[in-house]
Design a protein that fits this description.
single chain; Restriction endonuclease-like alpha-beta roll fold; five-stranded mixed beta sheet
Length: about 180
């Protein structure tokens, strides 16, 4: 018998001063049996950092990356099903990233292991044609602290200012400063 996903619900209150995005979002996350709290929370972090102010061009959604290799962790599709933004977490291989760069207008990766700089150094030369790719590193200690905020039902306040994100339950707070590994602005 196959194991089923565990459902997690999160109420996010987002105040992103860097992008002028202020909104509340109720999200449902289907957590794959093999997924850790840390990885799931990085997906939630990626949602908070990339959700748009409105749904005029479609909306950002959690995808089925651990179930379907042709899907990312999250994606923003427009109403014609064109992929505007492909978001992966972890350390995907260069072939997957090149396919994503060909399918989407924009590709982002959020690495969260301490080995992320080594992974990136080994594949970055293979991705020079992927001008629409941005790779971010979340410090391993910060992502592990973020994992401790995980629960089946979460109420989280997310504040983003000057490139730093604070995620809080009201009782506990985690500060995260993603580091951009790809060149650009």
């Amino acid at each position: 018998m196959a194991l089923k996903a565990t459902i997690h619900k999160a109420q996010l209150q987002i105040a992103d001063m860097d992008r002028n995005v202020y909104a509340d979002h109720n999200v449902i996350i289907a957590r794959h049996p093999s997924e850790t709290d840390e990885r799931m929370m990085i997906r939630l972090l990626a949602f908070a950092l990339n959700v748009t102010a409105d749904d005029n061009k479609g909306k950002l959604e959690f995808a089925k990356d651990l179930w379907d290799v042709d899907e990312p962790a999250l994606w923003h599709k427009d109403y014609t099903e064109a992929v505007l933004h492909w978001i992966d977490v972890g350390q995907p291989d260069d072939k997957r990233l090149m396919r994503a760069a060909g399918k989407a207008e924009k590709v982002s990766v959020y690495g969260f292991a301490s080995s992320t700089p080594v992974w990136w150094k080994n594949i970055q030369s293979k991705l020079t044609r992927a001008a629409n790719l941005t790779v971010w590193q979340i410090d391993a200690a910060q992502s592990q602290a973020l994992a401790k905020l995980s629960s089946r039902s979460m109420q989280l306040q997310v504040t983003v200012q000057d490139g730093t994100l604070w995620m809080s339950t009201g009782e506990e707070s985690v500060e995260i400063t993603p580091q951009r590994l790809t060149p650009g602005n």
